[in-house]
Amino acid sequence: MIVVNVMVRALLVVFLSIPMLVCVKQNTPIQGLPDYTAWDKEGMGVSVVLNGQAVNLLGEVYLHTDMDKLEESIIAVIYDINKNAWLAFYTKELSEKKDNDVVIKESKHYMYERKGDGWSLVKDFSGDHSDKTITDFLKDNYNMDNIELYGE
Asked: Low-confidence residues of the chain, pLDDT below 50?
């Protein structure tokens, strides 16, 4: 089971991404959403104003760390009001050892929407994944506002 502080970190990184170091490289091509079903999972809730009405949505955060490759992947899946998978926010961080420390060398941030039986890439936020950029995008494209996350 993932401890709460890992879930909170995952939510901050994935959903309302705090800007990473400006010097992080952005070389990896866009990729599809990986199979996260075997990853560590924690439930969450999302309080949001959707289409002008306050609603509480369910969500799940999935975390996978590969210490050999120095990779961390986090996926937050948000469910719609009918409890169907709707949106997914995927962050993949690649790190490297540098001067007896591990530092992030590349960070990618993607948003997907569920289409039929699969996930469709909506936006690559890797260039600018600030809180404002993501919340403005959600407001403009999904009529979502006042987004608040909480543990279940």
From this structure: 1-28
